[in-house]
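Co-fold these.
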Amino acid sequence: MNGIRLTLRVLHHGERHLAEELLTVADRHSTEHEVHHVAKDLAGWSREHVERLAVTGRAYGLELDESPAQPSPGLLTLMRQKAAQAVGHRPEPGLLLLRDLRDLHLDAAENSLSWEMLAQVAQASKDTRLLELASSCHPQTLRQMRWTNTMIKNISPQLLTSL
Amino acid sequence: MEDSVDRIAEPWGGRTPYSRHGAWPTRVDTHLAEGVTEDEVQRWVQSASILHSDGDAMDIAVKDGRMVGVRGRAVDRVNRGRLGPKDLFAWQANASPDRLTRPLIRQDGRLVETDWPTAMDRVVARSRELLEERGPGSIGFYTTGQLFLEEYYTLAVLARAGIGTNHLDGNTRLCTSTAAEALKESFGCDGQPGSYDDIDHADVIALFGHNLAETQPVQWMRVLDRLEGADPPRLVCVDPRPTRVARRATVHLAPRPGTNVALLNALLHETIRHDRVDHEYIEAHTVGFEELAARVKDCTAEWAAAICDVPARLIVEAAEVLGGADRLLSTVLQGVYQSHQATAAAVQINNLHLIRGMLGRPGAGVLQMNGQPTAQNTRECGANGDLPGFRNWENDEHVADLARVWNVEPATIPHYAPPTHAMQMFRYAEQGSIRMLWISGTNPAVSLPELSRIRSILSGERLFVVVQDLFLTETAQLADVVLPAATWGEKTGTFTNADRTVHLSDKAVEPPGEARPDLDIFLDYAARMDFRDKDGGPLIPWRDPESAFDAWKRCSAGRPCDYTGLSYGLLRGGSGVQWPCTEDDPSGTPRLYTDGISWAHPDRCEAYGKDLVTGASSGVVEYRSLNPDGKAMLKAAEFMPLHEAPSEEYPFQLTTGRTVYHFHTRTKTGRTPQLNAAAPDVWVEISEADAAARDLAEGDLVEVGSPRGSLRGRLRVTGLRRGTLFVPFHYGYWDTPAGFGPNASVPGRAANETTVTDWDAASKQPLFKTAAATLTLVEKGSGRHSPAPTTTASEPGRDSGVPATEGGPDARVRQTTDDGSSQEGGRQ
Ligand code: SF4
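Predicted complex below.
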């Protein structure tokens, strides 16, 4: 039981964090249109995971926040967007973008491993509810990873050779 | 029988009814310049249309070295002599007095005339400089969907193996990239499965986001003729506008723009729930059925009705018609391709056909359409973000094979990442990593989204812009070098329509002034750049269209789009032939996949597929494990909320599109008197309910605004769905005093002032159909009318008092509907 609780907590934290980071990156790179839009879509998946983890967590005596963390709203978002537009014409933001995508990838990879652990402990303890949760959420985490990986693969040749 | 019809007032002309499985009767449409009679025509020169993707075969009438008219080719199976309004009239634009006749270069901020060597030297000098200082990634090519096969192929070789850049795409990105992507996702390879002839045999025709009546008028004539004949087909129409298709449909669904995936998932749900599926076909030819069924399990009609805002009852009814079809033909175009979740939606239409076993038989087919006439060629030749011959850039064997054809090292051909798509090229130019952009035959300063951004990129100091075109377009006005090009009728080449039919188009007249065929310009550049193969020979040894065609044949050999059985000789005098066409089978191939799926095997497929929501690529390992035997893939997709939904601030959903009288950015249709008079200016369509609620009426001058910009137009009240506005796109500024963009005295006119920079993650096709917008009244119409035609989807309500659109005596066209034998031939 402790192991399950621990894993749920770690996952809940990880998914909340990823949702927040995806939205932050979407804002920061509002002139990278594909990143901007897809990152927002993907944040939706993590927010949904957070909710489902919170609901499931209750059955295990956990009180996890159901509402996803909001990225620092208002003024800061606006400033980020302005900054993105201002630097939108220079190549250096390309490096920042690659770094951000790499960080997102690592965050998603961490979550993926946690989902793996949850699925394993669910199987070991024959907990079908948990197994179902893991098998419905984990594929989306893998898709998040594949996306960051693809984006890095596609844009790094241009961004790195033009420095 | 012979009669004469005002083809502006009646865009589709007279009817020649025929029954199901019958042969579509011939009707030869002829239009000659005022005062010219048929006996005065000195030569009829064989060609086909490049004003839409039908590929209507026609002959150009020549007298004293001038084009004086056109006539449909009765022998051709695509149109059997018929021509659309654009085909009939737009040839006149070739002779416009404002054609570019000499190259221009920018000097002290102004474009001045120069000679060819000076202009080309400038382009070559800049290319060399950039190659040396910044490498091949600093040069990009953005081409069109209106050149010829020979030109695209030459461009692909010079860009990919000569310069060695990954940045080559066509504006077919805006038209057809989703069609290509959807075919790759489902069948592992591009290639239209069906044929226009399927219209003759289908008992149900479903048109998804496809205003066939206006975008491919000749095939709409075919549908109309069937509707008048025995055993007519039933139509299912998905379109927010009251198009002519919608008016003739058994079921018309007008979903909220951007919700196609929800609607299609519900249609699949109903089809599976009622077990209207072909289990044997699914078992033999597909993978992924279980997952698809699971994914749509909860997508009931009620669920979709709430998202799409259409009655659930209508969704059920549509599913019944589709599910009850004995031969189902589906056609798909921009209402799907330029909308939210484009590829995901287009793939669901493939899925519908796969689970119903509706492929590879007469009448059972899918037409993932193209917008532009020669879009198919950009796809085949590798000028649209693919490698030539549908080769897979991720498959080293395919790249090595291409390197053998070109006699270069495989490493010469960039294949470390997918070829850069157009929108990304503009982003790289904005960032400054692309420093030279060579734009041929297209006008991004009107056709791309968020025009103020595009104008600022094109006019930026750092970017060297070369524009090759017929006129001083909005884009050309921002260029550093402008190259005058010859066009259709002034050069020879081949091109392929949306149903894989290859036509030859011969040169009829000389181009004006010093204008040169695009092929000659590319060859000249390649020679000046001195591109070499790995043995030191010239990389591009061909010199003229026919030898370019032969080179392409070698490149296409053994590939799905095999052209080896074709030749200029075979096409000349004859009629269009559908690829693949080999020497053993010179009559071509009407339908693909008659014997199951043939190009999806992991070793042969063109692509390993993408995640339909994120666009992430799958990779060969995953592809192999999911589809080891190369079957068709049923790929499910979840509905995702819109990226830009209407809000209190922007209450409307703005959708844009093409209409029957205009094409592309009106470079030709705007210079055609009959077409221009029929639709001279932009307008704004609104639904009756929305107009009434805001006290707005026909002819009111309104401003449509979005977070990106705004445009003004006069209002037309129609049966459009509520909450939606429609604006015809590609009205620009060249025919206003403003020049290339709005200014203090000319307000925004182009729909793309307002559209959003966002694209489908899988196909990278921009979204032109789902911007959120405001509408404000500028001035009451007080008796004025909007310039919208009354003959099409913009038809006003009854009692509107709007005079009917007519073309008058200049728009009369002769239609000959006897057996047509005296009309045949058309040999030179
Ligand atoms: S009108 Fe524009 S979007 Fe439509 S087919 Fe032509 S280029 Fe493509």
